[in-house]
Amino acid sequence: MKNVIIIAEAGVNHNGNYEIAKKMVLAAKEAGADYIKFQTAVPELVISRSAVMAEYQKVNTGNDESQLEMCRKIHLPLKDYKPLKDYCDEVGIHFLSTPFDLVSIDLLSTLDMDYFKIPSGEITNLPYLRKVAKLGIPVILSTGMCEMDEIGAALEILYKNGLCNKKVILLHCNTEYPTPMEDVNLRAMNTMAAKFGVKVGYSDHTEGIEIPIAAVTLGACVIEKHFTLDKKMEGPDQKASLEPDEFMAMVLAIRNIEKALGKEDKHVTSSERKNIAIARKSIIAAIKINIGDLFTEQNLTVKRPGTGVSPMLWDSVIGQVSKKSYQPDDLIEL
Fold it and tell me: Please, are residues 300 and 252 in contact by the beta-carbon 8 Å criterion?
């Protein structure tokens, strides 16, 4: 089984500080993430002056400023992404960043990313989808706030502009921070896989680590989880993120689940084969049996160990003539 791709979503948890972003890269690597993902934007190209913050952003930041004012403070300038990508290469973790505008798409297209990550908010942005698709790079598409027909429409745009279904991974997602458990609806992930014929994964905004782990058991090939150095830092996404030790615990659990899922066939494993003789039973003398006696249900019984005649042969043993003498608990020989 190929490993589940685990993405540490750094997002804007660096609060616009390049040195903090670098610390996050190293921490994500040490926590076992395959990728660290940032968010690339020119705020003025993404957000109008009239756009307000989401309720969770107001709660988490304690501010009532405009969304544009908030984003100006927490995004890195475009010039920082190339050196940040180079630092990821140096550390040994894959770099990703989500573009939120067309200029950011152009920049990130020069950084040799394995995937373009499309956020939930851009799934109805036709010019954006078209531009990403024409790059020909595999796409990971989040589907928060979406109905099935909206996902289908977005996929149609991607396919018409050069991508095929083998180059698309859909991430089931809920964009409330944190997501209430009753709104997770994990089974929708496999519904999307069946309907659209693509690989699926899960982008998680719940508290804790159990839901991403559950998603892996249901077949997720990508897990994305918000990541921070410290939940007490300022910023809209810090509280819904995992700190490095929590992220490491999630990674270890997912890797164990991958091993445990195994294959679809049922077979005796090498680790348990030695226990067959100990745990199974054999046909054994219940009382003293003499040569020439018939084997009966009164003079035979079934006990451990399983090194003798299998009890599955019971009916064929009953009625046979004993060719030797047996003491109680002796294994019967045929």
Answer: no
Q: What is the mean pLDDT of residues 182-210?
A: 97
257 and 274 together in one domain: no
Which residues on adjacent β-strands are paired with residue 171? 142, 201
For residue 329, being part of any structural domain is answered with: no
Q: What are the residues facing 226 on neighbouring strands?
A: 9
Same domain (yes/no): 301, 164: no
% of the chain at pLDDT higher than 90: 87
Q: What is the pTM of this model?
A: 0.89
pLDDT tens by residue, 83-121: 999 999 999 999 999 999 999 999 999 999 999 999 999
Beta bridge partners of 302: 283
3-state SS track over the chain: CCCCEEEEEEECCCCCCHHHHHHHHHHHHHHCCCEEEEEECCHHHHCCCCCECCHHHHHHHCCCCEHHHHHHHHCCCHHHHHHHHHHHHHHCCEEEEEECCHHHHHHHCCCCCCCEEECHHHCCCHHHHHHHHHCCCCEEEECCCCCHHHHHHHHHHHHHCCCCHHHEEEEEECCCCCCCHHHCCCHHHHHHHHHHCCEEEEEECCCCCHHHHHHHHCCCCEEEEEECCCCCCCCCCHHHCECHHHHHHHHHHHHHHHHHHCCCCCCCCHHHHCCHHHHCCEEEECCCECCCCECCCCCEEEECCCCCCCHHHHHHHCCCECCCCECCCCECCC
19 shares a domain with 113: yes
**pLDDT level of residue 1 (50, 70, 90 thresholds):** very low
- Provide the domain count of the chain: 2
